[in-house]
Design goal:
The protein is built from 2 helices and 29 strands. It is mostly beta strands and 386 residues long. The protein starts with a helix and ends with a strand.
């Protein structure tokens, strides 16, 4: 895209929307900041626009031009004697000679728009868990208030007495809550009806659901069927779990990685020399992403190491992905990062200017990423421009 064409790109405008009253008198949703960024697939920022209410803004992205100065003097004179420049242009330009006209080389770059909105929803206390499920979004704050959110303006809040929520998942049409201090799972309907489901185990750290089974990471591993009856279990102290293809992959407290089939039959164990740095595991695009003390280790489906990053201040706490991007963040300021399919990061966006608070939870729905910002939920919508 030429400089003239870039100048013709109009800034995208996003208007502030007035916040509406919710069904709860104790909470409200608000939109304080809207910012738009038009970038290229190669991380070039073409334009940015923002509108604000009630505060001064910093921006994502780079406000400087992305067009680099050409260091070759031959590019500015009527000459093709510069051998290095000639060799470079032979790869990109159409050259006409006596052998006839060769096939033109076509190059295209995808334009992507990121729309960033702060405070699409406000909770009473600091956000602890946020999940997007069919027809409803579920938020849990640090006071263990449960918010059943339909459209950020219509929602209900519930409180389960003496129940410290550790995780929430959607399985077989049910919204289930777990606790690290109770042996009960809780099913909560959109109307606030609560059903106790006793599983005979405490210290539930995480739940992972597949089409047919629910897996519980507690004092040991459990596999539950669609009726929430225990089908099988496995002894061991595990700290995290995720699905990788047809396997359940679990991270043990000593850093070893265990693989099970869907019915929790043990398959294999993988042990790496630097396993004591492993903190969390995540799945995306047939790859296993392991959060370490200061970075990220990426394994393929054969558990072979394909890439390592070691430039983070703290372990990754949350993770989301769509068909083109992998997004992760941590519990420190400006930790939000976007990883492309080639496993390289966007460096100019969104990391260079805006101040993003520590993020504890994140989820994605229809190419919109939602993440916590203290007691608020903010969003980043990914738009693809033809």
């Amino acid at each position: 895209m030429s400089q003239d064409e870039e100048k013709k790109i109009k800034k995208m405008k996003i208007e502030n929307e007035d916040s509406s009253e919710s069904r709860s008198q104790e909470t409200s949703s608000s939109n304080d900041t809207h910012s738009s960024y038009l970038i290229l697939e190669d991380d070039g920022l073409l334009s940015e626009d923002s509108s604000s209410s009630g505060e001064n803004l910093d921006y994502f992205g780079s406000s400087s031009s992305t067009v680099e100065d050409d260091v070759s003097q031959a590019a500015w004179v009527d000459s093709d004697e510069d051998s290095e420049l000639r060799e470079e242009l032979e790869e990109d330009a159409l050259w006409i000679n006596s052998e006839g006209v060769p096939k033109a080389i076509e190059r295209s770059r995808k334009e992507i728009s990121f729309n960033y909105t702060r405070k699409v929803f406000t909770a009473r206390c600091k956000v602890k868990i946020f999940r997007c499920f069919p027809h409803v979004k579920v938020l849990v704050d640090s006071f263990n208030l449960i918010y059943m959110i339909r459209d950020f303006e219509t929602f209900k809040t519930f409180k389960i007495s003496l129940y410290k929520i550790s995780d929430v998942c959607y399985f077989n049409g049910r919204i289930l809550f777990s606790s690290d201090s109770s042996s009960y799972l809780k099913e909560v309907t959109l109307e606030g009806e609560v059903t106790d489901i006793k599983k005979g185990t405490g210290n539930i750290k995480k739940m992972v659901s597949s089409e047919n089974y629910l897996y519980i990471v507690a004092d040991k591993l459990f596999c539950l069927n669609k009726n929430l009856s225990i089908k099988s279990d496995f002894n061991g102290q595990f700290v995290d779990a995720c699905l990788l293809g047809d396997n359940l992959v679990c991270l043990k407290d000593d850093g070893d990685i265990y693989c099970f089939d869907q019915e929790l039959t043990f398959r294999e164990k993988h042990s790496f020399s630097f396993k004591f740095q492993f903190k969390r595991i995540f799945y995306a695009k047939d790859k296993l992403f392991i959060a370490t003390e200061n970075g990220l280790v990426i394994l393929n489906s054969a558990f072979k190491q394909i890439k390592t990053f070691s430039n983070l201040s703290e372990p990754i706490t949350c993770f989301a992905f769509n068909s083109d991007f992998i997004l992760h963040a941590s519990a420190y300021q400006n930790s939000f990062r976007i990883l492309k399919n080639d496993l390289s990061y966007f460096e100019k966006f969104p990391y260079s200017k805006i101040k993003i608070n520590p993020i504890s939870t994140m989820d994605i729905e229809n190419d919109t990423v939602y993440f916590s910002d203290s007691r608020f939920i903010s969003s980043l919508k990914i738009n693809y421009i033809d």
